[in-house]
Amino acid sequence: MDYSRKVRAAAVQISPVLFSRDGTTEKVLQAIANAAKEGAQIVVFPETFIPYYPYFSFVQPPVMMGKEHLRLYEEAVVVPSPVTEAVSQAARSHSIVVVLGINERDGGSLYNTQLIFDADGTLLLKRRKITPTYHERMVWGQGDGAGLKVVDSSVGRVGALACWEHYNPLARFALMAQQEQIHCAQFPGSLVGQIFADQIEVTIRHHALESGCFVINATGWLSPEQVTQITSDEKLQKALSGGCNTAIISPEGNHLCPPITDGEGMAIADLDFSLITKRKRMMDSIGHYARPDLLQAHLNAEPFAGFQIKGFERGLNGFPNYENFPSQDRGAEA
Length: 334
Known about the structure:
This protein has helices at 21-37, 56-59, 66-75, 82-94, 169-176, 194-211, 224-230, 234-237, 274-282; strands spanning 6-13, 42-44, 97-106, 109-117, 123-128, 151-153, 156-162, 182-187, 214-219, 247-249, 265-272. The protein is an alpha/beta fold.
């Protein structure tokens, strides 16, 4: 691995076009072009940015959220699709690595999905958030261990986690153990208030220090008008404010540029990979500072392939054909 390189990174704080997959995609494509103009070689977008984070699920009770949930289904992104092809083309045209959060639709389920496109447009990774958080469990299904993967890209070894996955130390360790050089974090933003922004600050700086890698973090942002679109209840509107902290952190836990905590904007910084070695010389948590003789972790990296019915076939009427069972498995019918 090359620890002598320097990479220019961009983290985008941006608001979606609510209720519009195509509108939000256009904003992504424009932001990719803007990042490239700044010389960025990697650009990171917020959590489930296309079409938008399901803020409705945080402020509406389950019995009331059916309409909005169905609308999210209609605007969600299938992989592959014209949306992913457009982002791939933009990455290729601008020679830039793109890390994008989407609401992915796969049949009858939605997932919190992170996509990593290489600078030649290749989709290097499609991973799903392993455990949706709190209200999100009413919206998304669960991911699997196959997505806990670090990929080789034109800017180095890149990994990604979404939001409170960073509070799962074994998920983070799985990426650290694969020699992650650039970690891409994504949060929704405009949620919970200042306490959320403070938590993001602690979380991303700790991961940078513990893993000895760079962290590029992007959070979303809602305008006051958009908050009103989501809920007219002024008390609930307070829950859809603050919580923004778009930042780029060094392996030593320092900000490499001023963080963005309000409004739209782009954080840009140069990543000097020699800082990885400088940090790990002191503390390499997966090398000389590890104790594998005492502590080990097991990762099930097999992708979930869907439910399979084993041991019998179903007849034309949909009921099991018990004739395919050995007699000892047929119980009272044997």
